[in-house]
Design a protein that fits this description.
single chain; 337 residues; mainly alpha; Glycosyltransferase; 56% helix; 0% strand
Length: 337
């Protein structure tokens, strides 16, 4: 069992809210994912993206908003609650959503934020749908546009992308599945499940050649978490037993040892804090599908990974513009709400 300190509490929620509020509307520094078709496309972040212009990059801004929406729903009396609501009322307007959606129509934006930002945008929309507010309704055109991108892309994606960074297809499907379920979009959910089966179902006895030097996701565990969300339990559990047959013996050993972060001011090296937090998230989610001895090993691994990186969510902007989202995933893993 996890300790109380390893579950989201009001103090942590308030810290995460303050961190996200400090960066979602901070325009610079900024790393754009933007193709220039001509000199007319030399534009600033806020001009290109009137909602998601902060947090160093578009996708981090999206999951910064997800962090704010999630802590607001779980702790509606947070000291930061009024500021969050005011921010959302200002950000989620028809005009701003139309501008974000129009950006996607540019021919050169076909690959914009694929697939990481796609998954996070739909994860954000799933969270907004849980609020008694107009935000999700206003955001619907943008969410539908990204859902359509998945519908167009996945039938052409013959192979998964097995990385520990933004290109991970397993992570994108895992996040986007929450939207498909919340929206009751059964055809999209079926597409996700069919695609994940074709990509991953033949995998067994994972070797876990990780981490790489700038991973913030575990390719091995994310594949399992993706399938856990998309397959029925009676299909997933035997697959997981074959995929991680030695989990009770804490093998592959690399999955049970937190990554060492040598420089938290380096934007790539600090990714490894995210790896520790996302591994904690995955181990917690997977524990209930493992036999008892393996589940105990998974919970212990989650605790060790949390202890290694949760204290470092704040400190340097290279980490604090995004790490709270991954801490939030870990601290709420396995919970219904």
């Amino acid at each position: 069992m996890s300790s109380r300190s390893e579950r989201l509490n009001a103090e942590q929620a308030s810290l995460f809210a303050r961190l996200a509020l400090s960066h979602v509307a901070r325009e610079y520094p900024n790393k754009l994912d933007h193709v220039l078709d001509g000199p007319q496309d030399v534009r600033g972040p806020r001009d290109l993206h009137p909602i998601f212009y902060g947090s160093f990059d578009w996708h981090s801004c999206v999951h910064g908003y997800w962090t704010l929406a999630t802590v607001l729903r779980r702790f509606p009396a947070l000291p930061e609650a009024a500021e969050i609501r005011d921010l959302f009322d200002d950000a989620f307007t028809d005009g701003k959503v139309a501008a974000e959606t129009a950006y996607l129509a540019r021919p050169s934006a076909r690959g914009f934020e694929r697939p990481y930002g796609w998954g996070w945008l739909l994860k954000l929309q799933a969270e907004l749908m849980a609020h008694d507010a107009p935000w999700a309704s206003v955001m619907t055109p943008l969410a539908l546009a990204f859902a359509d991108r998945f519908r167009d892309f996945l039938p052409r994606a013959a192979y998964p992308i097995r990385t520990g960074v933004h290109s991970s297809t397993a992570f994108a499907l895992a996040l986007a599945s929450d939207y498909a379920k919340a929206a009751g979009d059964q055809s999209l959910l079926q597409l996700f499940a069919d695609t994940a089966r074709s990509w991953y179902l033949a995998d067994a006895d994972a070797q876990a050649w990780e981490p790489s030097g700038d991973d913030f996701l575990s390719p091995t565990l994310l594949e399992a978490e993706c399938l856990r969300r998309l397959l029925p339990a009676e299909e997933f559990r035997p697959w997981l037993a074959d995929y991680l047959p030695h989990a009770a013996q804490r093998r592959p050993a690399s999955l049970f040892a937190p990554a060492t972060v040598t420089d938290r001011t380096d934007g790539k090296i600090v990714h490894l804090d995210g790896l520790n937090l996302s591994r904690a998230w995955c181990w917690r989610e997977l524990a209930n599908a493992l036999p008892s001895h393996a589940a105990a090993a998974a919970e212990a691994a989650a605790s060790a990974h949390l202890a290694a990186s949760l204290p470092h969510v704040a400190g340097d902007y290279m980490g604090e513009h995004w790490l709270a989202s991954f801490a939030l995933l870990a601290l709420t893993a396995g919970e219904a709400g």
